[in-house]
Amino acid sequence: MTVAEKIRPLYESIKTQLPDSMESDILYDRTIAINSSIHEVIKTIGEATLIVLVVILMFIGSFRAILIPILAIPISLIGVLMLLQSFNFSINLMTLLALILAIGLVVDDAIVVLENIDRHIKAGETPFRAAIIGTREIAVPVISMTIALIAVYSPMALMGGITGTLFKEFALTLAGAVFISGVVALTLSPMMSSKLLKSNAKPTWMEERVEHTLGKVNRVYEYMLDLVMLNRKSMLAFAVVIFSTLPFLFNSLSSELTPNEDKGAFIAIGNAPSSVNVDYIQNAMQPYMKNVMETPEVSFGMSIAGAPTSNSSLNIITLKDWKERSRKQSAIMNEINEKAKSIPEVSVSAFNIPEIDTGEQGAPVSIVLKTAQDYKSLANTAEKFLSAMKASGKFIYTNLDLSYDTAQMTISVDKEKAGTYGITMQQISNTLGSFLSGATVTRVDVDGRAYKVISQVKRDDRLSPESFQNYYLTASNGQSVPLSSVISMKLETQPTSLPRFSQLNSAEISAVPMPGTSSGDAIAWLQQQANDNLPQGYTYDFKSEARQLVQEGNALTTTFILAVVIIFLVLAIQFESIRDPMVIMISVPLAVSGALVSLNILSFFSIAGTTLNIYSQVGLITLVGLITKHGILMCEVAKEEQLNYGKTRIEAITHAAKVRLRPILMTTAAMVAGLIPLLYATGAGAVSRFSIGIVIVAGLSIGTIFTLFVLPVVYSYVATEHKPLPVFDENKTTH
Predict the structure, then answer these.
(1) Spatial distance between the Cα atoms of 398 and 348, rounded to a whole number of angstroms
(2) DSSP annotation string for 8-41
(3) Under DSSP, is residue 347 helix (H, G, I), strand (E, B) or coil?
(4) Which segments of the chain have a pLDDT < 50?
(5) Is 576 left (phi over 0), alpha (psi -120 to 50) or beta?
(6) Does the global pTM surpass 0.85?
(7) How buried is residue 257: exposed, middle or buried, by Cβ count under 10 Å (0-12/13-18/19+)?
(8) Do 259 and 611 form a contact (C-beta atoms < 8 A)?
(9) 508 within 8 A of 401, measured Cβ to Cβ
(10) Distance between the two ends of the chain, CA-based, in angstroms?
(11) DSSP 8-state symbol, 318
(12) Which residues form a coiled coil (predicted)?
């Protein structure tokens, strides 16, 4: 952004210095989409804060009490901004997205502390005494929840590759916000509770309505939980069914590196036979560009013939501002691609500008076939592979960079006959040079500038091999000898280039997946096809965005597993048990199943962003930390009930679930409410924000409902049986 801001005035000053016959315009400015995304995210932060405030008010009902959790938002965000500055991080899309998630996260701990203090006040304690007792009771769970969430993001901050670079600042921003919110919840929140909350105060109308509604919810939950605990085996069987569906839910989703965004611009590449020249490409692309510019939503377009290869055309099309058009970029591209089918001279396809810059130009999916065998056999194998791709119906556009279709003329000189005429090889070389490529014969100076003088036959007189019959050489006796009498010509086909990849002969096939076919599905098909049909001695690799997906696709899966392991170890230390953390972690697959079911349903209706991409996977990682907080709250109370009151596991967890219902519902509602603006996001970057938002909202909502019923059942079977602490009798003495 800074570089672009400094370049613009320089560009304007250069533009004024151009000759009148020249025009200049900015072909594509990526910062427009970035700047629009940043403004949308900042607006979303404000919306999320307002919604969270309203939701907390609905659960608490007191304007005085609501100040306690709400104050955690500005304090935590200001603290995070100070951390960003100390780490020399910038305000970018990822850090701003982290701040949106932080709004719901930072109020969680304060809500838990507030609810516990308020419960003691209603039990008859003074606000000051309730603040001390309530905070002391809830301190360990709050610390555990804070450490668990930080542990979730720590593996993400240590990731390598492009994904690691992209999400490092995101992870550290959220980890910093969680840490600060935990400190605020255990220090500022109790102090404010002792000052703002009143004992024996007459409840307001809103507080009465809130208490009445939540009382009904509590009674319904208690009734349903009692039924569940009487039928524990049925609920356990239900949980097993959910766990068994996870592999199917994962495999049924399409995958891609990043979702297709409406960036306000896209690329189209046109390919013609390799034997044609730049003029042919330029003329052939004119009908295509005419169709493009007639599209109402298109603002600007430029076609560059001869790029990125000599027989292709690179076209960059810029759309009008998001507010000035009703159709999304994908619909516009589909319409233009349909019109391109009517142009027989070239094969053209439009595709999105990659969200992550891989440093390579070209189509989003590129497979490279490699072998040590000769190029002829490689070309035949590549052609068969290309035919299979076209027949699969998964690709709207394909192009092979190795093909024996370029006409090549081999000219041989009859030295013996040339010697008979007294014609030297230099004469023949100069004549052929003038005919084929032109030669510099001298230089001339005009107004202090040196210009080359190039001798070359007029273009119309050198368009076919037969033109050689019209040119003559001067023999030693002064006679004119036809050039064709001393040379012979052989026309054959050769590839335009002989590409190499990883020190092997290679052929690259570039492709654009059909609408409805994700990059991950296309790559999986290519891998299967290559593994099954490539001859012995052939290997394959990927380039461009496909290479990043293959290399980085499993990185976040590994990070997800590592996050689960780290949280488990943290909880094992906290609870001094292996079995209690196992109970708490049972909520993870419950929440993940909820997220995956939602993605599959929305994917069925072709909703953008409902694939397994880096944003949805980050949402799943975040979900691990969020959902385990519920289990920590319940299991900590259940443990204390067993230690202090000698209750059985069933009695302890049933009591804990009923006591912790309200803070669980409040924290879930606050987090979900804070992410609602992501679900109806529009403009640049909207699909990525929706992708991470829908995973967390659906996973947390469904996972919370499942956890409230499944976790108590699992606890009753698996959790550690904590024995009551021995009571010291002062009347007994030992002799």
Answers:
(1) 9
(2) HHHHHHHHTTS-TT--------HHHHHHHHHHHH
(3) strand
(4) 733-735
(5) left
(6) no
(7) buried
(8) yes
(9) yes
(10) 81
(11) E
(12) none
Q: How many CA atoms lie within 13 Å of 331's alpha carbon, on the beta-carbon side? A: 8
* One-letter amino acid for residue 632 of the chain: I
Token pair 């307002």: residue: 50
H helix intervals, 231-355: 232-251, 278-294, 329-340
Token duo for residue 56: 């907390």
| Rounded-to-integer distance, Cα 28 and Cα 4, Å | 12
Using alpha carbons only, what angle is made at residue 484 by residues 480 and 485, rounded to the nearest 5 degrees?
70
What is the helix (H) or strand (E) element at residue 474, kind and residue range? strand 472-474
Task: Provide the 10 A C-beta neighbour count for residue 448.
Answer: 5
Contact 121, 199 (CB under 8 A): yes
Q: Which two tokens stand for residue 163?
A: 């994904």
Q: Could you tell me if 710 and 586 are in contact, meaning their C-beta atoms sit under 8 angstroms apart?
A: yes
Residue range 416-473, pLDDT digits in tens: 888 888 888 888 887 777 777 666 778 888 887 888 888 777 777 777 777 777 788 8
What does the radius of gyration of the chain's CA atoms come to, in whole angstroms? 35
Q: How far apart, in whole angstroms, are the C-alpha atoms of residue 695 and residue 27?
A: 36
Which tokens go with 404?
């024996």
Q: Which residues pair with 455 in a beta bridge?
A: 439
Tokens encoding 293? 């510019």
497 CB-near residues (< 8 Å, 6+ apart)? 401, 402
Q: Extract the tokens encoding 708.
A: 């409230």
Query: Rounded CA gap, 657 and 643, in Å?
Result: 17
Determine the Cα–Cα distance for residues 334 and 514; give it in Å rounded to an integer: 10
Residues, the chain: 735
- Residue 364 in contact with residue 510, Cβ under 8 Å? no
DSSP H helical segments within 407-506, as ranges?
Answer: 415-421, 425-436
Residue for token pair 């997946």: 513
3-class SS at 315?
Answer: strand
Two structure tokens written together for 29: 């400015």
**What are 617's two structure tokens?**
């996977």
Question: Could you write out the three-class secondary structure of 529-559?
Answer: HHHHHCCCCEEEEEEHHHHHHHHHCCHHHHH
Nearest residue to 70 (alpha-carbon basis) of 228, 185, 234, 220: 185
- In the chain, the largest separation of any two C-alpha atoms, in whole Å, equals 141
Give the tens place of pLDDT for each residue, 556-607. 778 888 888 888 888 888 888 888 889 998 999 999 999 999 999 998 887 8
* Closest residue by Cα to residue 724 from 646, 648, 635: 646
* Sign (positive or negative) of CA dihedral 27, 28, 31, 33: positive
Structure tokens at 214: 């939540």
Alpha-carbon distance 568 to 566, whole Å?
Answer: 5
Contact present, 140 and 186 (Cβ < 8 Å) = no
Q: What number of helices (H) and strands (E) belong to the chain?
A: 24, 15
- Rounded to whole angstroms, the Cα distance separating 206 from 214 reads 12
CA angle 369, 273, 432 (to 5 degrees): 110
CA-CA distance, 31 to 29, in Å (whole number)?
5
Strand order across the beta sheet in which 298-305 lies: 298-305, 312-319, 265-271, 347-352
For residue 727, what pLDDT is reported?
56
pLDDT at 359: 56
- CA torsion sign for 612, 615, 618, 623 is negative
CB neighbourhood size of 102 (10 A):
25
